């Protein structure tokens, strides 16, 4: 999240100001990804934690949230988020299908 992969492009190409979780939140998010989601474990506690981080970012002015890890959308479906979700796994899949059908 600290890297420029998304933030730099969104800022440069679309003038979007990107907010990222605090360092301690990023550490917990990564822990959940690697110690739970990658192992197929989806807990209510982790779901609630992600919702809390998303809500805090919304309070700071975020208007949407990018799920940059493929498993996050399985943990937090869009209907459980207070912000619109951009699930990169779904976006890539949809674009791949559109490309194949064109």
Automatic annotation (TrEMBL):
The lineage of its organism: Bacteria, Pseudomonadati, Pseudomonadota, Gammaproteobacteria, Enterobacterales. It comes from Escherichia coli. Signal peptide: none annotated. It holds the Pfam family Asp_Glu_race. This is Putative Asp/Glu/Hydantoin racemase. GO terms for molecular function: amino-acid racemase activity. Keywords: Isomerase. InterPro entries: Asp/Glu/hydantoin_racemase, Asp/Glu_race, Asp/Glu_racemase_AS_2.
């Amino acid at each position: 999240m600290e890297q420029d992969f998304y933030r730099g492009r969104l800022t440069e190409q679309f003038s979007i100001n990107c907010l990222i979780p605090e360092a301690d939140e990023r550490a917990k998010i990564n822990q959940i990804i690697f110690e739970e989601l990658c192992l197929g474990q989806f807990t209510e506690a982790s779901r609630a934690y992600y919702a809390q981080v998303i809500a805090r970012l919304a309070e700071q002015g975020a208007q949407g949230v990018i799920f940059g890890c493929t498993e996050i959308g399985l943990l937090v479906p869009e209907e459980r988020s207070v912000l619109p979700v951009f699930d990169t796994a779904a976006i890539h899949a949809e674009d791949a299908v559109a490309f194949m059908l064109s």
